[in-house]
Amino acid sequence: METQVATRIEDRIKQWGRELGFDAVAIAGTNLEAEEARLLDWLGRGWHGGMDYMARHGARRARPAELVPGTLSVISVRLNYTPPAARDSADVLDDPESAFISRYALGRDYHKVIRNKLQAFADRLVHELGSFHYRVFTDSAPVMEVALAARAGLGWRGKHTLLLSREAGSLYFLGELFVSLDLERDAPVGDHCGTCTRCIEACPTNAIVAPYQLDARRCISYLTIEHAGAIPEEFRPAMGNRIYGCDDCQLACPWNKYAELAASPDFAVRHGLDDERLVNLFAWTQDQFDTRFEGSAIRRIGHERWLRNIAVALGNASPSRGILAALRSRRDDPSALVREHVAWALARHEQPSNGAH
């Protein structure tokens, strides 16, 4: 009888989560011993680059019950983010004068959206089940989201290290509720990557150094978002027109033919960022950047990195008077970081063999 009651509770929890808009809900335990060894090896290799917060927390990331004392179960959720009306990613990538922004960042800041939904979820659980201890997470603390989601059966870790699902590919956000409820766990699913290596072959900078192993220092998402300094010159040409993030490994994955569009209006394209010209974005002032990215995840990189990234993309574009004029307009930018990348871009265009003049 106890098992039947427990099963009913888990099913009700998942139903409440779906009613609040989550596309999938599953439950995991707190044992991540195998993932902890993998994490420590990754950190030991220095593949986290400048993301010092990952090293600071160390093995604690793989120990939910230490991170939040009293945690007995983790409720993992999935929320699709692909905007319904966005310009096709391949079309943008093939247009060197357009700016490619990772599809997850075209709408509102997912941190706030998912955190609010998870808080509403927790409130519903407390109302229905009585008081218990919990904590909400969404890419905002040292939590191994992919490992927990895989343990909960929401998918498996793909060779690009992201979570993959047979029903929804990988184009979604993850979030977690650490709870002091002893819930029945869902069963993990098997790996369905098989012999496919398309994600590895698609990576512009060879950041996926082996199946299931990512050197973040080479990853365009890391370089355009997390990395604070100058982008190493060896990676700049491969960045193409990617100015915020990179979706190439996901675009190449066959499972993403099953990716579902976002139901939440929060992830609808804002400010035409799915189809904007590089020169237009490069002209934005600090005030325009701050105003237009109010409520966007992009705002956290700051105007300086924004210009740095676009300068690289302009250097990779086909030379034209408009692009040269845009770059020259910031040749004396107050930021040494921006000036360096502008100089690099201009040098690529002003070489006689480029025929820029």
From TrEMBL:
Keyword Protein biosynthesis: no
Enzyme class: oxidoreductase
Cofactor, free-text remark: Binds 2 [4Fe-4S] clusters per monomer.
Primary residence: cytoplasm
InterPro entries given in the database record: 4Fe4S_Fe-S-bd (IPR017896), 4Fe4S_Fe_S_CS (IPR017900), QueG (IPR004453), QueG_DUF1730 (IPR013542)
Alphabetical list of NCBIfam families matching this protein: tRNA epoxyqueuosine(34) reductase QueG
The protein's name in its UniProt record: Epoxyqueuosine reductase
